[in-house]
Design brief:
Order of helices and strands: EHHEHEHEHEHEHEHEEHHE
Largest sheet: 10 strands, mixed
Structural class: alpha/beta
Number of strands: 10
Distance between the termini: 34 Å
CATH architecture of the largest domain: 3-Layer(aba) Sandwich
CATH class of the largest domain: Alpha Beta
Helix content: 25-40%
């Protein structure tokens, strides 16, 4: 069976998986490629990795369009994803209503699981928030950093820490067994990121890539997007 190669932020992995059967039925194509930190995925495209389509942040996709690596006419917003808090299944949920409460939540944890703080959307934001809260040095030895949010959440689920907490994009939390979405980040610390899909200029299966984009952004896929953690649909 033919394979559609995509490079995608980890935030979209659950949603893409939910339409894989429909794509296979309609086109005969399986979904292949890689899900990871958006910066790393964009760099793979720039270095020539065989790619039919990308799902990355709107800002990165716009940049790739300027670099003539994606087809401008194919660009479609999928929806917004919040950076949020996670706890293990069975642990008390953490609710934070302001920056002070978030600071206490981080201080009260003995392990903080996050994605790459240099190339992932959520990881970069977590690093910014920890600095904003004056915690960068205080919790440095508690940070458990992984290549992407999904990997960070899998490790948190298996952690033997007493009070671990995770902070990554809500979609990655929802799609990982053993962890649960605990709540959004409070005002002043929150982040909602628009994820956008596009067909690459090097695509060998452009028609099938466009079909996948149609499935991801269809009006009747609204409940699938919501269930996967997207807080709003395409514009």
């Amino acid at each position: 069976m033919s394979t559609l190669n995509i490079l995608s932020g980890g935030a979209a992995q659950g949603l893409v998986g939910s339409v894989a059967t429909a794509l296979r039925t309609q086109t005969g194509f399986e979904i292949g490629g890689e899900f990871g930190a958006v910066g790393a995925m964009a760099d793979k495209l720039r270095k020539g990795a065989p790619t039919d389509m990308v799902i990355l942040t709107a800002a990165i996709v716009a940049q790739l369009a300027e670099e003539k690596l994606v087809v401008p006419a194919s660009i479609r917003d999928i929806g917004l994803v919040e950076t949020a808090l996670a706890v293990r299944v069975g642990d008390p949920k953490i609710s934070v209503t302001d920056a002070a409460a978030l600071r206490e939540a981080f201080l009260g944890s003995d392990a903080i699981f996050v994605p790459d703080t240099k190339v992932s959307t959520a990881g970069i934001h977590v690093a910014k928030v920890l600095g904003q809260l004056g915690l960068a040095e205080k919790v440095a030895d508690r940070l458990k950093i992984f290549p992407n949010g999904a990997t960070a959440m899998r490790h948190m689920a298996e952690s033997d820490a007493r009070h671990p907490i995770g902070c990554t994009q809500s979609t990655e939390i929802i799609s990982t067994d053993g962890v649960v979405l605990s709540g959004s980040l409070p005002p002043g610390c929150a982040l909602a990121t628009m994820y956008t899909a596009a067909v690459t200029t090097q695509a060998t299966s452009a028609q099938q890539a466009q079909r996948l984009i149609d499935l991801l952004t269809a009006a009747d896929a609204q409940e699938q997007r919501k269930g996967a953690g997207f807080v709003s649909g395409p514009k």
